[in-house]
Amino acid sequence: MTLAWMPALNAVLNTLSAILLVLGFRAIKRGDRTLHKRYMLSALASSILFLACYLTYHALVGVVKFGGQGWVRGAYFTLLITHTFLAAAVPAFAVYLLIMAFGGKFDKHKKAAKWAFPIWMYVSITGVVIYVMLFHIYTPVYAP
User: Fold this and answer.
1) What's the rounded Cα separation, in Å, for the pair 37 and 14?
2) What is the mean pLDDT of the chain?
3) Is the Cβ–Cβ distance between 40 and 20 less than 8 Å?
4) How far is 58 from 37, CA to CA, in rounded Å?
5) What is the pLDDT of residues 95-136, one digit of tens each?
6) For 50-94, how does the pLDDT look when each residue is reduced to its tens digit (9 = 90+)?
7) What predicted TM-score, i.e. pTM, was given to this entire model?
8) Each residue of 11-55: pLDDT tens digit?
9) What is the rounded CA–CA span in Å between residue 91 and residue 28?
10) Range 78-103 burial, b when 16+ CB lie within 10 A, else e
11) How far apart are CA 136 and CA 43, in angstroms?
12) Of 20, 27, 69, 136, which residue is most buried, by most CB within 10 angstroms?
């Protein structure tokens, strides 16, 4: 059984997370807390599913190396490094935001969300860009 479909699924889940984040942001700007909650919990679920699929894929396939050369290699790794470090912050932000929201501490939730939203968006969007660069623009190299 091949797992070649999993990176595409991961890109779809990242895209879905970004769309849901934007919809959640728009809902809260309109004052609709119920819709905001639904969109944001859905974005969280999509991101959790992404992480589970991503870890499963790499546990089974191993390392996938970028096949590009020259200046684009440096650009790719700059994107990958910033994506990876910021992605590590998203779960901590998400847990904090959930605790503040469900605890009714909306001022603290809003203050943290001003940082978390752009970081989570960056991670979701750059995840898709990395996927396209790694699997579609350049030929990936599978490490033994």
Assistant:
1) 19
2) 96
3) yes
4) 31
5) 999 999 999 999 999 999 999 999 999 999 999 999 999 999
6) 999 999 999 999 999 999 999 999 999 999 999 999 999 999 999
7) 0.93
8) 999 999 999 999 999 999 999 999 999 999 999 999 999 999 999
9) 21
10) eebeebeebbeebeebbeebeebbee
11) 25
12) 20
Q: What is the DSSP string of 35-90?
A: HHHHHHHHHHHHHHHHHHHHHHHHHHH--EE----THHHHHHHHHHHHHHHHHHHH
Residue 1: what pLDDT? 64
How would residue 2 be classed by pLDDT, with cut points 50, 70 and 90?
confident
Question: Cα–Cα distance between 108 and 139 in angstroms, integer?
Answer: 45
Closest CA relative to residue 54, chosen from 94, 84, 20: 84
DSSP for 16-39, please give it.
HHHHHHHHHHHHHHTT-HHHHHHH
As a whole number of angstroms, the distance between CA 49 and CA 138 comes to 26
| Backbone phi and psi for residue 3, each to the nearest 5 degrees, phi listed first | -110, 20
Q: Give the Cβ contact number of residue 47 at 10 Å.
A: 25
